[in-house]
UniProtKB/TrEMBL annotation:
<keyword id="KW-0444">Lipid biosynthesis</keyword>
<dbReference type="GO" id="GO:0005524">
    <property type="term" value="F:ATP binding"/>
</dbReference>
<dbReference type="InterPro" id="IPR020568">
    <property type="entry name" value="Ribosomal_Su5_D2-typ_SF"/>
</dbReference>
<protein>
    <recommendedName>
        <fullName>diphosphomevalonate decarboxylase</fullName>
        <ecNumber>4.1.1.33</ecNumber>
    </recommendedName>
</protein>
<keyword id="KW-0456">Lyase</keyword>
<dbReference type="InterPro" id="IPR005935">
    <property type="entry name" value="Mev_decarb"/>
</dbReference>
<dbReference type="GO" id="GO:0019287">
    <property type="term" value="P:isopentenyl diphosphate biosynthetic process, mevalonate pathway"/>
</dbReference>
<keyword id="KW-0443">Lipid metabolism</keyword>
<dbReference type="InterPro" id="IPR053859">
    <property type="entry name" value="MVD-like_N"/>
</dbReference>
<feature type="domain" description="Mvd1 C-terminal">
    <location>
        <begin position="180"/>
        <end position="312"/>
    </location>
</feature>
<keyword id="KW-0067">ATP-binding</keyword>
<dbReference type="Pfam" id="PF22700">
    <property type="entry name" value="MVD-like_N"/>
</dbReference>
<dbReference type="GO" id="GO:0005829">
    <property type="term" value="C:cytosol"/>
</dbReference>
<dbReference type="InterPro" id="IPR041431">
    <property type="entry name" value="Mvd1_C"/>
</dbReference>
<dbReference type="InterPro" id="IPR036554">
    <property type="entry name" value="GHMP_kinase_C_sf"/>
</dbReference>
<dbReference type="InterPro" id="IPR014721">
    <property type="entry name" value="Ribsml_uS5_D2-typ_fold_subgr"/>
</dbReference>
<dbReference type="Pfam" id="PF18376">
    <property type="entry name" value="MDD_C"/>
</dbReference>
Length: 327
């Protein structure tokens, strides 16, 4: 990476879907997770962010899709670290655009904070490695640490700011994967991921067992990825997602991200599978469902979901690239 001579840089980062979920922070200030996690970066959904440091500014300014934002808490964590590393006191204008079809129902924080890390570090003249960018993105949002890299990515939890970062997974032989996103509701949720995971970690009686579950699921998912075992990949991913959602149901007070439509998609996937069509589902901190399948069954499953839920709710993605920095 080269240094930026004119205080400005643009970066593009893609969103990711977690297969082994991150759900809980040991340290909320610097986003150290209780467990590791594994995700797949997706090709269709990304954020493009331009950062310009300007000595005339008296505060950071954030535009998302052209709209001024007032809550800059997480953005400031990233920019303050960049200023500290660069020995600069300049504030920045951040112009961020999400290229996530409204029908996809993906959260944009992973791609947004990964793009912010790449653009702000470059604009400040820093030459950071991808590992350092992953740590920087993590300060904004945990899942963003993984969106620095393409394809399958593992976030090594670590226990401090220096050893908690994501790495690209090597030796993966499972490459034929398609993800069908079914949008049930794209309104923002009433319990944010940060609030939800904190509640689960503090109150679910199952939280200590979740950490054991994730340790086992990480080993088994890696085995599936290295042996090109799609059935095992799907089974582990689906079970891990449901175990994460069991933490929300078992919190005090209990809560869920599921909506009636979420359960409808789950039933459809179970029925397709009973008919011998191989597909699995995963669900993040929201009602929308991502169906995991392979090329051979993609059209059939997509057509089925389009018939049932309507074309505007369905979008398809494949494994996508890591961060791209444009000077
Ligand atoms: C994940 N999620 O591993 C999990 C699974 C949602 C469910 O990471 O609090 O926006 O900003 O670190 O990264 C979404 O939460 O949370 C998320 P913070 P983030 O992808």
């Amino acid at each position: 990476m080269t240094t930026s001579a004119n205080n400005t840089a643009t970066a593009i980062a893609h969103t990711n879907i977690a297969l082994i979920k991150y759900w809980g922070k040991v340290n909320e200030q610097i986003t150290i997770p209780y467990t590791g996690s594994i995700s797949l970066t997706l090709d269709q959904f990304y954020t493009k962010t331009k950062v310009t440091f300007d000595p005339q500014l008296t505060a950071d300014q954030l535009l998302v899709n052209g709209k001024i934002q007032t809550n800059l808490t997480k953005v400031s964590r990233v920019l303050n670290r960049v200023r500290q590393l660069a020995g600069s006191e300049k504030f920045a204008i951040i112009d961020s655009k999400n290229f996530v079809p409204t029908s996809a129902g993906f959260a944009s924080s992973a791609s947004a904070f990964a793009a912010l890390a790449g653009a702000s570090a470059t604009a400040a003249g820093l030459s950071l490695t991808h590992q350092e960018l992953s740590k920087l993105a993590r300060l904004g949002s945990g899942s963003a640490s993984r969106s620095i890299f393409g394809n399958f990515v593992e976030w090594l939890p670590g226990d401090n700011d220096d050893n908690s970062y994501a790495v690209p997974m090597t030796d993966v032989t499972l490459t034929d994967i398609a993800v069908i996103a079914v949008n049930i509701n794209s309104q923002s949720k009433t319990i944010s991921s940060s609030q939800g995971m904190q509640l689960s970690a503090n109150t679910s009686p199952y939280y200590s067992e979740w950490q054991n579950v994730v340790a086992r699921d990480l080993v088994n998912l890696k085995h599936a990825l290295m042996t090109n075992d799609f059935a095992l990949f799907g089974q582990i991913s689906e079970a891990n997602a449901m175990r994460m959602h069991a933490l929300t149901l078992s919190s005090l007070p209990p809560f869920t991200y599921f909506e009636p439509g979420t359960l409808e998609v789950i039933e459809t996937i179970q029925a397709l599978r009973a008919d011998g069509i191989e597909c699995y589902y995963t669900i993040d901190a929201g009602p929308n469902v991502k169906v995991l399948t392979q090329t051979a069954n993609l059209s059939l499953i997509k057509d089925h979901l389009v018939d049932q839920f309507g074309p505007s709710r369905i979008s398809v993605a494949h494994p996508g690239p890591g961060i791209e920095i444009l000077e």
